[in-house]
From TrEMBL:
Location of the Holliday junction DNA helicase RuvA C-terminal domain: 182-224
Localization in the cell: Cytoplasm
Keywords associated with the record: Cytoplasm, DNA damage, DNA recombination, DNA repair, DNA-binding
Full protein name: Holliday junction branch migration complex subunit RuvA
Region (Domain I): 1-64
Main subcellular location: cytoplasm
Region (Disordered): 154-179
Gene3D superfamilies referenced in this protein's UniProt entry, alphabetically: 5' to 3' exonuclease, C-terminal subdomain, DNA helicase RuvA subunit, C-terminal domain, Nucleic acid-binding proteins
GO BP, sorted A to Z: DNA recombination; DNA repair
NCBIfam families reported for this sequence: ruvA
Length: 227
């Protein structure tokens, strides 16, 4: 199983790229959001990957973060949701917004993705709501794939020289890290994972850019007994 590819971006199409890994080219399909985040042709690129295996088909799908890859895995585990539908959802919402929508039971946001009907959107929210907290908690351990070629997963049998692309520095996903920290704090206070995830998701949606402490305070206000 190919879990990550690092090499040179040789070609860009509307929904996929060709990545040269030491002389071997891999076609990788990506969401529209991921495509916009990729570098130009000839530059270094690194993507986490998932492989679709069928009797008559082998396809690789690429993601810039492990959270995005995990949401793809979970989305495609829902009945009636294939890889194309998952890419549409992730391209429309992005992994963080997918987590918020599912944690809040907001199937209308999921339905906004092309090709996703109301019944499918409702099934996604129902099937994945209990799993949203654990994926949202991954935010604190995300490492951006664009940091540079630190791992060659697949190598060519030919003795081709290893490319030395210019490394890119990346900023940590501070919003995801803050949400992960807030989730952990609320869990330590005794709140259930689903209640904590819903409160953190709502707090993050109400006010962008809140740090961990701000998210905790806002979520506690939402969780406080009414009346």
């Amino acid at each position: 199983m190919i879990g990550k590819l690092t090499g040179r971006l040789d070609y860009r199409a509307e929904d996929h790229v060709l990545i040269d890994v030491r002389g071997v080219g891999y076609i990788v399909y990506c969401s529209s959001r991921t495509m916009m985040a990729l570098p130009g042709v000839g530059e270094a690129v690194s993507l986490y990957t998932a492989m679709l295996v069928r009797e008559d088909l082998l396809q690789l799908f690429g993601f810039t973060t492990l959270v995005e890859k995990e949401w793809h895995r979970l989305l495609t585990s829902v009945q009636g949701v294939g890889a194309k539908a998952s890419m549409a959802i992730l391209g429309t919402l992005g992994p963080d917004a997918v987590g918020r929508a599912i944690a809040l039971g907001d199937w209308a946001s999921v339905k906004a993705a092309k090709g996703i009907g109301p019944k499918t959107a409702q099934r996604i929210v129902l099937d994945l709501k209990d799993k949203a907290p654990s994926v949202m908690a991954m935010g604190g351990t995300i490492s951006e794939a664009m940091e540079g070629p630190d791992l060659e997963v697949v190598e060519s049998s030919e003795a081709a020289p290893k490319p030395k692309p210019k490394k890119k520095t990346s900023k940590p996903n501070t919003d995801a890290a803050a949400q992960a920290g807030a989730l952990s704090a609320l869990s330590n206070l005794g709140y259930s994972p689903s209640d904590a995830a819903a409160a953190v998701a709502k707090a993050a949606g109400n006010e962008a850019g809140l740090g961990e402490a701000g998210l905790i305070r806002a979520a506690l206000k939402l969780l406080a007994p009414k009346g």
